[in-house]
Amino acid sequence: MVSRDKLVNQQLKIADKARFVDDFDDLSVVGGVDQAFIGRDVVVSVAVVMDYKFNLIGKSVCIDDVSFPYIPGLLAFREAPTAIRALRSLEELPDVVLVDGSGLIHPRGAGMATHIGVKLDLPTVGVTKSLLCGEVVEEPEVVGDRSPVLLDDRVVGYCFLSKKRCNPLYISPGHRVSPETAVDLVNSCLDGYKMPEPIRCADKLADMEKKRFS
């Protein structure tokens, strides 16, 4: 395996290429990416495309062996390659992709959403249920509220309450999206559940594929 130092350097290069400003013309269709593991070393990656009425208009499934170990902070090297293959297998790429993983909320500013976004030069947003790093200014208490996540005095994303009686989400830009717009995009993709619909759909399909091999 490549040394940790070299992998960290790769992440720094990815972070340097990432743009955390809005850089898109139209957002008529939105994508989602999620994954499931069969055992420890086989990953099922599902990419979906939906309209903003949450109709599924495209999907792709990629299953691959994974040799890279689980290392916190380097998760993209384990999971992103298969996710990228799934996205590339779609008939048409979506205008923006919501990724089950961090973006700018990452020690080196290069979480999985950033990794995918830079590799495909595609607008991406990272959505997670746990905070990888940084500090929340104030925990949101009302559905729809957001609070900045700061890392080294920089806003790297937002803590966002998407559903009553649930823990908040942590949303950050991956590539070609600003932190503020990242939250707006996730909010526009909610349909009564904690997670946005494109990720929920990808998660369901990944779980279905996993059960086929169980």
Describe the model:
The structure is a single chain. With 214 residues, the protein is an alpha+beta fold. It has a single domain, classed as archaeoglobus fulgidus dsm 4304 superfamily (archaeoglobus fulgidus dsm 4304 fold). Helices cover 29% and strands 29% of the residues. The chain has five helices and nine strands, in the order H-E-E-E-H-E-H-E-E-E-E-E-H-H. It has helices at residues 4-17, 75-88, 112-120, 179-188, 197-212, and strands at 29-38, 42-51, 56-65, 96-100, 124-128, 135-136, 146-151, 154-160, 169-175. The chain has a nine-stranded mixed sheet, sandwiched between helices. The longest helix has 16 residues, at 197-212. The model has no long low-confidence stretch (mean pLDDT 95).
Distance between the termini: 29 Å
Secondary-structure-derived class: alpha+beta
Number of helices: 5
Lateral strand order in the biggest sheet:
3-2-1-4-5-9-8-7-6
What portion of residues is helical? 25-40%
- The geometry reads as globular
The run of helices and strands is HEEEHEHEEEEEHH
Residue share in β-strands: 25-35%
Largest sheet at a glance?
Answer: 9 strands, mixed
Our Rg estimate from Cα atoms comes to 16 Å
Number of domains: 1
CATH class group: Alpha Beta
Mean pLDDT: 95
The third-level CATH topology is archaeoglobus fulgidus dsm 4304 fold
Low-confidence runs:
none
CATH-level-4 superfamily name? archaeoglobus fulgidus dsm 4304 superfamily
Label the CATH architecture.
2-Layer Sandwich
Q: What is the number of E strands?
A: 9
Organism: Methanonatronarchaeum thermophilum
Keywords: Cytoplasm, DNA damage, DNA repair, Endonuclease, Hydrolase, Magnesium, Metal-binding, Nuclease
Protein name: Endonuclease V
Site (Interaction with target DNA): 70
